[in-house]
Amino acid sequence: MTPDLPVVDPPDSVADPVREKRVAGVLLAAGTSSRFGERNKLLATLNGEPLVRHAARTLADAAVDPLVAVVGADGDRVAAALDGLGFSVVENPNHAEGQATSVRAGVRAVRDASDVAGAVFALGDMPLVASTSVDALVAAYRANEATALAAAYDGERGNPVLFDSRYFDALADVDGDAGGRDILLSGGDSVLVETGDPGVRRDVDTRTDLDRIRERGTRF
């Protein structure tokens, strides 16, 4: 049974932040798209742009810095799709072993920066997340709501997630496809941040998922 996490609203403002160092943005964009078919779903187009570029722009427009993209399958093409958005690109040669390997690669890219307090981990197959949802996570974190936070819609857990740097070593040790999910759910200082954004619950696994998004329209 999945444990329930408390749900908090993001603060309207953070006049006296508890945490002032930078929060990094890590885009996990290395997957093999096994359920999508022969094409890499991250390179499928949505409103004339690759899916992954929409997800990357969410971080680029949010209050996170530095920006890191972890690529794997079709790495050169995925990296090219991010051109001009300000991302440093990290190659994950072990991407076929699961999402945790990309989390590890992202953590290694940001944890040695002395002025980084934590990191937001976003998924490359979630093109509908608003940048304001990322900002809501960061604001709640700076206001000391918790040290592990996940975006939520209507009280239901979604993505992206934010982890304080105290979890970086543990994230570097995770295995399989869970990424940091177990750390989030088992942590004693974890919350869901209500964003009011249905995009935090919508990913693209199959062609049907993408067709539905195209039919219903997007904010982009």
Can you offer a commentary on this structure?
The protein has 7 helices and 10 strands. It has 220 residues and is α/β, with parallel strands linked by helices. The protein has a single domain (23-213), classed as Alpha-Beta Complex (Spore Coat Polysaccharide Biosynthesis Protein SpsA, Chain A).
Broad structural category: alpha/beta
With strands numbered from the N-terminus, the spatial order across the biggest sheet is: 1-10-8-9-7-2-5-6
Estimated share of beta-strand residues = 15-25%
Could you state the order of secondary-structure elements as H and E?
EEEEHEHEHEHEEHHEH
- Fourth-level CATH superfamily: Spore Coat Polysaccharide Biosynthesis Protein SpsA, Chain A
| Cα separation of the termini | 36 Å
Number of E strands: 10
What is this structure, in a nutshell?
Keywords: Nucleotidyltransferase, Transferase. The protein is an alpha/beta fold.
Key traits:
alpha/beta, Spore Coat Polysaccharide Biosynthesis Protein SpsA, Chain A, eight-stranded mixed sheet, two-stranded antiparallel sheet, 10 strands, 28% helix, 23% strand
How does the SSE layout of this entry go?
Layout lengths: L6 E2 L13 E8 L15 E2 L2 E2 H10 L6 E5 L3 H7 L6 E4 L7 H12 L5 E8 L7 H12 L5 E6 L2 E9 L3 H4 L9 H6 L3 E5 L12 H10 L4
Parallel strand pairs: 1-10, 2-5, 2-7, 5-6, 8-10
Antiparallel strand pairs: 3-4, 7-9, 8-9
